[in-house]
Amino acid sequence: MITAFVLIRAERGQVGALAQTLAELPGVAEVYSVSGEHDLIAIARVAAPEDLATLVTERLAVLRGIVSTQTVLAFRAYSRHDLDSLFDVGLGTPGSVR
Q1: Three-class SS state of 73
Q2: The model's pTM
Q3: Is CATH 3.30.70.920 the right assignment for the domain spanning 2-82?
Q4: pLDDT digits (tens, 9 = 90+) for 44-78
Q5: CA 32 vs CA 40, 90, 94: distances in Å
């Protein structure tokens, strides 16, 4: 599974409608409105690099209301859940003393 973050600048007044449209695209798992230089971040989860290329260049970038996109590819995922599971084998928790 390939995960990518697509940072999107939207036309003024188009953020809400664009977010709804993005969320309905196959391959888009989640869409967030954000602060900063971008207006939206779409999280893409696809099976193959070709699927990501199709999603970004043929389905997403042609949508009305998008000014620009920047795609960031994820290499590895880290989460609190992942870190906690490392210590579920009886070794204690991070920072604990035995």
Answers
A1: strand
A2: 0.79
A3: yes
A4: 999 999 999 999 999 998 999 999 999 999 999 88
A5: 5, 37, 31
